[in-house]
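pinging the channel bc i need a second pair of eyes. not urgent but kinda urgent?? the chain im working w is below, pasted from the shared doc
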Amino acid sequence: MIDKYQHRLQTLLENDPLRMEILRAVSTLDLPDCWVAAGFVRNLVWDHLHHKNTRLNDVDVIYYCQSDTQGQLAINATEQLHEKLPKVNWQVKNQALMHNKNQHNQHNQYLSSIDAMTFWPEQETAVAVALDARGDISVAAPFGLRPLFKGSITVNPKADEEIFWQRIQQKSWLTSWPKLLVINSHSDN
């Protein structure tokens, strides 16, 4: 059963022609466990809450493939996506390799794209969407959608709090979306 937040997100996406075009382009890739994530979804909801329309800086495409140790699938996918939509700043990343970039040890190797999202600095960024075989929008949100639709920015307990604060500052989220409420769950424990 689809909850009200998932339905709201699907409706927002369906009413955004560029985002739907992006989802259709990504759905043509032959990447395992593939999703469009992060600001693609988060910023859409924050824009909705603030009655504004910010432009997409980049589009994060995530997938999971343990055998793609050199990232060749990402390179090929980026080329294919640039051919389809050359004006989009594509960021294609294999989540099977990201535990190294994020300086997590081998014991924390991610198990899937969704598992990798549970390590992202903000819980509201850990939302991904994809088109299924029927063309319907699938949603993955390991921390749920409620905080995103409530206008929160919540530190992930698994993440480095300093990186969380740096991202808020560097990305000017509180300037772009001033109604956002920062929730530092680290200090709440």
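so The longest helix spans residues 72-84. and The chain has a mean pLDDT of 91. — does that match what u expected or am i reading it wrong
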